[in-house]
Amino acid sequence: MSKKGAVLAASIAMVLLAVSMSPSAMTQPPPGRGGRGRGAAPRQRKAVLAWADTRNGIAQHDSVSHALAVVERLGYESGAYDTYIRTDSNIVSKHPTMTDGKPASGGPSLATVDAIFFLGHRDVPLDAQQKTDLLSFVRDEGKGFVAAHTATTAFESWPEFGELIGARYDGHPWNTAYGTVVNEDPSFPATKHLPPAFAFTDEFYQAKDFSRDAIRVLLRLDVSKMPPNPELHRTDGDFPLAWAKMYGKGRVFYSSLGHAASTWDNPDVYRMYFEALKWSLGLTDGDAAPRPRR
Amino acid sequence: MRGRTVRAAAGALACLALLAPAPRAQTPPRKHVLAWADVRNGYQHDSISHALATMERLGRESGAYDTTIRTDSQLITGRPIVFPKGTGIAAGAGGDFNVHDLTYFDAIFFFGVREIDLSAAGRADLLAFVRDDGKGFVAAHSAATAFFSWPEFGDLLGGRFDEHPWNIADATVVVDDASFPAMRHLPVRWRVHDELYQLKDFSRDRVHVLAHLDPATLDLHAPLVHRTDGDFPAAWSKTYGKGRVFYSILGHDADDWDNPQLQTMYFEAIRWSLRQVN
After folding, report:
1. Of A58, A163, A236, B115, which one is least surrounded by beta carbons within 10 A?
2. CA–CA distance, B71 with A50 (Å, rounded to integer)
3. Which residue on chain A is closest to B34 by alpha carbon?
């Protein structure tokens, strides 16, 4: 670079710095945060509701709290998003209420967060309006919905939830077992870091009520390498473990990986969920168009 | 010589075992901490989720305890939690369903706020958990705003919130008991930047003040300053029946929980409440 060029580049850098520190930029508060204090430059962070209402599920997983804490840490440390951890469902609403039904006093809600990380379980207590708000949050407002493991056991009696998430839970034939996972889409942000096939131990959930016309499968279990099992219901060997899809305008990701707390310490796993969250927030792009098995 | 080599090899193996990511089984078995922050009826401080996640990480990484995070109060009961038929994956299969009531936990880390929807039976069980079962109760910041209409909670915690006349401000915390586990790592005079709470309804006959705000570093003419004796505790310990209780006013902002001094204070307070240290 010529001396003149270097001076020009330096002045551009100064201007950019000045713009980034201008009062108008500084007075714009980051969404969803109160005083972060200490005069640190505000970061434009997204807000994620990490929602794990397990109150009506008997098999409450010990991994849930660790998963919530890991998801929080990934967003906090990277600066990609801030997390509200909730194991109740009061703020899963555009008009959240307190326990006595009166309006909540501000704070996070479906009107203020940008994506949900869902690790709920079985019959989650939402009223009809909350269900409408949740679907609209993703479908109409284009917000993100990333779900893990027990999420497919949730809301069994609510058909639209099955359409939102893309499948239903149909047992775990081998319980916690060793298997081979096939990466069907190494170009998708959440599976880019994973090899074409890899060994993995987890409680592999069998999915049902899914269609490859509606979801883009990212990971599947290689059933041909698993021992025979009478609870294996599908005869075509299709056993998705992670997928992406659209629900209206919103981006949806689900994976069944993550039964044990230690699974969430595995960088391959937490990176998958972190990248899925970033994708669902629109921070990265990936093709969620359905396609046949490969 | 050979013995030393064997010991060195065993030590190296032990180090490798510590480095290995799994299995995480420990001996003795880990304690169980319920990180309970029912925020449904009040303002959810932005710091609460980060505080819960931080306390979870400290317990997990150290091996001192495992944490269950809840923002509902379902587990605040001493009785088995029962479900309608057909709601559990393993329903009917027998065995451990992992639904933990208070009898499973060894301590509570409490970061709730305002009036919490808890039944009379739940309240009685919470008090008995500490008073009769000798379990721990460590509480942070907005905890002193909780259950204002329930007198016994004030007895459990040791005091009540009485506004934050200085809002978020700089002040000096003076450590009064540098020998206490949660204070040992702190300088005698600790500069903090936090939302400083004024406390009321406490008695130095019943709480052991571990640290206080230096009144010389506070504006005592701020409109909501009610205390005339300059007594502004920042942290205390106490017993409630057989159980150990710790409270500190500190931790309003999320990044306060990134301060190793504050992290160590709450972590050591939990270990003390679990009787891992005295």
Report:
1. A236
2. 11
3. A65
